[in-house]
Amino acid sequence: SGTVNIQDLTKVYGEGDDELVAVDGMDLHIEAEEFVTVLGPSGCGKSTVMECIAGYLEPTEGEVLVNGEPVEGPDPSRGVVFQENRLFPWKTINQNVRFGPQMRNAVDEDRIHSLFGQMGLEGFEDAYPHELSGGMQQRAELARLLANDPDIMLMDEPFSGLDAMTKELMQENLLDVWEDDDRTVLFITHDVEEAILLADRVVVMTARPGQVKDVIDVDLDRP
Ligand code: ADP
Ligand code: ADP
Prior knowledge:
- The chain is an alpha/beta fold.
- The protein has six helices and ten strands.
- The protein has helices at 46-54, 93-103, 109-118, 134-147, 164-181, 192-198, and strands at residues 4-13, 20-30, 35-39, 61-66, 69-70, 78-81, 152-156, 184-189, 201-205, 212-217.
- Strand 4 (61-66) and strand 5 (69-70) form a beta hairpin.
- Helix 2 (93-103) packs parallel to helix 4 and helix 3 (109-118) packs antiparallel against helix 4.
- Bound molecules: adenosine-5'-diphosphate (2 copies).
- One adenosine-5'-diphosphate is lined by residues 13-14, 20, 22, 40, 42-48, 208.
- Keywords: ATP-binding, Nucleotide-binding, Transport.
- Residues 4-223 form the ABC transporter domain.
- This is ABC transporter domain-containing protein.
């Protein structure tokens, strides 16, 4: 599972003179286990589309179906990562990573332990987010997301703030996670190289109001 069906999605912010059409009648189908990048100029509506899939925003018109069902609010099966991490600053990395499963009384110790290994965070369990480098914070954010075992990973420019070398390592890390665990990934970026490097398909959006301009199948050897 992990299909996403965006049908004639329109999102309008504000009213009257303040009305702003961010997304205008967008259609897109994402297969289960596909890695799709969304490329488009700043302000074209990428984050808005993602937040509609996440369930943080309600469409003005049209709908988003996940596994055939309309999205009704956020769900841990759809994990979100933003450019700036949303870790709780007053909680340790360990407390952050186990927060989601704890809320659902579903902490799997083995899984959490292996996530710390997989993300190279061993020894930093008791550190606070501000004590980690930017790259490690994003790895902690990924670990937090994966602790919920999401079918769908929604990533909004997650590596934009990182230096080139850290970014490359994070990209490899993400591809490993994706290849091992059969997850659907929707990855927003305005970096053309990153979009092509990571994806099965690149969705190119028009300038606002957002619509699909082109969908490109990528057939490159991954790093
Ligand atoms: P992108 O992610 O491609 O940069 P966004 O989805 O963030 O685009 O924004 C699309 C347009 O909608 C932009 O013009 C932005 O300023 C506007 N916008 C985004 N969020 C809001 C909001 N909460 N209220 C009003 N306008 C918004
Ligand atoms: P991005 O990095 O995706 O371009 P933005 O900086 O456009 O993100 O937006 C960051 C946050 O601010 C988002 O949650 C978005 O909804 C909100 N936002 C963006 N533009 C506006 C706006 N014109 N009015 C109100 N909120 C906005």
